[in-house]
Amino acid sequence: MESLIIIGDGGHSKMVQNIVRESGTYRLTEVWDDKYPEPVARDGILYTSLDEKLQSLTQMDSDVAFFVAIGDNEIRKKIARTLALAGKKFAVIVHPTAFVEATVEIGEGSLVMAGSIVQANTVLGKHVIVNSGATVEHDISVGNFVHFAPGSVVTGGCTVADNVLIGAGSVVVPNISIGANVVVGAGSTLTRNLEEHSRKKTE
User: Fold this and answer.
1) Gap between the Cα atoms of 94 and 116, Å rounded
2) For a tag site, which of 9, 76, 82, 126 has the least CB within 10 Å?
């Protein structure tokens, strides 16, 4: 079984760690977070400083997979790019209760959480989060570092560019185009295209 290092140890990471244990796809060996100035070993896992480890990436085993378990798109992107520049590879993590249709493509570093649905012919970019109970319907093109928050629904034929946050419980109607760095507010309904850097407020 391939070894896995998880970056981050907040609430989001705790859920990712549980998925890894339940799925049995990877063997979790280390968790890196700056709340551990000194290394701590628990249940066979080493919890240690993120900054210190990032400075010694080139000395590490190239066979280990990484996963950046941080919900914030910008922070996740910054750390993922540092790891990528050092030639590190990324895991794809899917909860056993998620439904991912056979034609779906999932980019490296992406996460599909419990009770979520990703339907036919959808393409998820790199380091995407499909959070608990979210639905990403058919024929959707999703960029990199996108976060579908819990309970959000994006219906068929949509295009979602990089660094987008689809807020919890929001709904995007069919064939909508969402530009880069857009925030769709929690509980909102999106019925028109949004240009990059736009914000759809909760109504």
Assistant:
1) 10
2) 82
> Could you give the C-alpha distances from 63 to 12, 51, 60, 88, 127, in angstroms and in order?
25, 21, 9, 8, 19
Please state whether 8 falls in left (phi above 0), alpha (psi between -120 and 50) or beta: left
What is the distance between the terminal CA atoms of the chain, rounded to a whole angstrom? Answer: 47
User: Residue 22: which domain range?
Assistant: 3-91
Indicate which CATH number applies to the domain containing 190: 2.160.10.10
pLDDT class of 203 with cuts at 50, 70, 90? low
Q: Please confirm, yes or no, whether 138 is among the known catalytic residues.
A: yes
Whole-number average pLDDT of the chain: 94
Of 127, 138, 147, 197, the active-site residue reads 138
Output the domain CATH number for residue 17.
3.40.50.20
CA pair distance 26, 41, nearest whole angstrom: 18
Work out the percent of the chain whose per-residue pLDDT is above 70.
98
pLDDT at site 63:
85
- Asked if residue 108 and residue 68 are part of one domain, the reply reads no
